[in-house]
Amino acid sequence: MDNFARLLKESWALVEENRVGLSRHLYARLFLLSPELRQHFPTQMTGQGDRLLEAVTTFVHTLGDPETLDEYLRSLGREHRKYQLEERHYENMGVALLDALRSTAGEAWTEEYDQAWRDAYATISEKMLAGAAADENPPYWHAEVLKHERYGPDVAVLTVRALQHPLPWQAGQYIGVEVPRYRPGEWRNYSIANAPNEDNLLEFHVRTPGAGWVSGALVRRTKPGELIRLATPAGSMTLDRESTRDVLCVAGGVGFAPVKALVEELTTYNRTRWVHVFYGARHRDDLYGLAWLEKLVAVHPWLSVTPSCSEDVGFDGEHGDISEVVGRYGPWTEHDCFVSGSARMVRATLRALAEDDVPPHRIRYDTFGDL
User: What family classification does the UniProt entry report for this protein (predicted)?
Assistant: First the structure.
């Protein structure tokens, strides 16, 4: 196992920095082999590439924790039921992945690396297929839009109710969303912005920078009373209720959504853990969730909030990228850390936490690749 893990980590280091080329090659090959899958993915694949990077990185770096890895892969299998995948689709993904790895690594790729990834993907597909087969939930839920609130030209907060039997999720997870009236067949992942509740209500914070068709439909066209579809929740950016460590949450833009859910859940049981929220955006108007956080600070003495703007010189608060602001405080070595935002913001924050010697296993994160 040690040699297997070494080969995977060595070979992944060859391609990790060229994530754009890797994902572009992989999906081009996959859609050539299985063209019927193209309809399920965004027109612009940048965010999907970051999801791919997150999934493969998680696999490579979780090899030493078989139990966590097993549940992660089974969860991915459950999540992918919404695509109605067959075994041949998994086989084609394996072909595309190996082809992309070889092409991206170039002459540095070896037969040993190739065999290690063949074995790795065999494990990945086996666990994902097992997770999908064992799931007794429907592949997706129908949900009704109850509220649609706009925050500026590009951001909307939607509240929906799942109409079938209770939809199980944990605070901090994300979920696939389809808008069949406007974008049938295309799914986009969004973090759930509230903690689980008895009313089956879910909240989503959606930003459309112009290129996201599903996001654009949710922000600009969807109205209360319309129906959407929700896939199986996934993601591991969740709280450990057994932990006694203090908590650090770092949110950028609509990356505030899962942090909001985590804080909301903490308000239901926390009494002893200090919780520090760092919330960043370019301009003060983009900090749409700040008023909600400030209300909680007034009634929960364990909660502190530090807002920051990177391009608003008149902002009465911290200035600079939120990753830089987090680095000015701390140390964070004894905290459970949660990071959510754009891929660039998350990478910068992870570097800052690494420089602060925060153990990697105490950091959980989620990326929004199109921001």
Answer: Belongs to the globin family.
CATH number for the region 247-368 comes to 3.40.50.80
Task: Return mean pLDDT, the chain.
Answer: 90
Contact criterion met (CB below 8 Å) for 190 and 156: no
- Using pLDDT thresholds of 50, 70 and 90, give the confidence band for residue 49: low
Contact criterion met (CB below 8 Å) for 33 and 96: yes
Q: How many CA atoms lie within 13 A of 235 on its CB side?
A: 28
Span 221-246, mean pLDDT?
94
pLDDT in tens, 308-320: 999 998 999 999 9
What kind of fold does domain 140-231 have according to CATH?
Elongation Factor Tu (Ef-tu); domain 3 (2.40.30)
Cβ proximity of 236 and 220 under 8 Å: no
Residue range 2-134 in CATH 1.10.490.10: yes
**Closest alpha carbon to 256 in 287, 291, 283:** 287
